[in-house]
Amino acid sequence: MPNKKNSYGLFEFNQAKLLSQRLDGVCYAYVDNQSIRINRSIHSRNFVQEGVRCYGKSLPIGGLPKPSIEKIRSYELISLLNDVTIDGHQPDVVYAHFPLLTLTPRFVQELTTRGIRLVCMEHWSKVRKTELSQREASFLKHLVANSNAFCCVSVDLERSIRRITNDNAPIYVIPNMVSSEVFCPIHSKKEISREGDAYTFIALGRLVRDKKFDLVLDAFSRLSNKRTNLTIVGDGPDGKRLKRKTRALGVDRRVTFVGWLNSDEVASLLKMSDCYVSASDDETFGVPFVEAWMCGIPCIGPSNNPLRDSFDETRGMLFERNDIESLAEAMDAVSSDHCVNRVSTISPWAKSRFSEIVVIDRVIEVIKTALQEKDSSTRMGKDAG
């Protein structure tokens, strides 16, 4: 369950909170099976948080053999389903995020038996990278073929799912949502010349090699425009090494590491920055790009990032992945064009595509489509392999 110290499940809970404002009888249910090194409590909970009825079970079994985990998790999920069935009134729909991680074949079969619709929303990066085990791939194929509606967060992820499953069943692409109240432009930020001001790039993410902050620092050190700064938000095992690298590159006075920040703090920094930059080519969606656009600033990202079709001359630039010179050229080009802030163009565009109300409307539409099926067994009658 997400809280101030743990963001695990935050995206899912935020969607449940918004759905509860639009639909009757919405509850948020979770099973926490993280390792005992992370989760040391065993409990069942029934409570209300931020107006949402929540049901949860915690059993730290991470680290056990996978067949054992699946068996225990199936039991917990069915028990949770019984908990939310009150006075004989069972759920009409189970809306599951990360279904390959959260569901089991036994639980899906239980939904079929009870005539409960299943709507799946897949985000998992292993699916996008097609790095699934044979059993995971088989279960994904079953879910796509037999859920009442299957969704994912990007076109790239959809393509990977189709490659794995070889299934032409409908897949709804619904992007991740970003709060337009938290991530919004500074209204006093005028679209006027800022010639003479230092240009500030900002990069976000966990400080690990996969996020390729090394590439960003190498490119930043080669910029012809030296009136530039770089703010790096995040923490992780590579933090000390990256700080040493800034000194070796001679850019330590222009690079600021601020550590981990919450969403409000990230939004505040984005609003005061000029451009978001990321060299990571391992993203399933790319939420920070949307957060930056919501705040009205352009972005620079690799040519293969999932949001590449959203880039244009107003919203930023793409560079050739893993190419330092290409990234440096893009950063130089964007910073040299810093005579205009395009807040009034970028932010409304992003809000119209990624705001909470827009995304939740699409989720509700899919849920209603699933409910309109006369018999859930028409799509959920096969055994998972």
TrEMBL record:
This is Glycosyl transferase family 1 domain-containing protein. Residues 86-180 form the Glycosyltransferase subfamily 4-like N-terminal domain. GO terms for biological process: carbohydrate derivative biosynthetic process. PANTHER family: SULFOQUINOVOSYL TRANSFERASE SQD2. Pfam families: Glyco_transf_4, Glycos_transf_1. One of its GO terms (molecular function) is glycosyltransferase activity. It comes from Eggerthella sinensis. Keywords: Glycosyltransferase, Transferase. The keyword Repressor does not apply. Residues 190-337 form the Glycosyl transferase family domain. The keyword Mitochondrion does not apply.
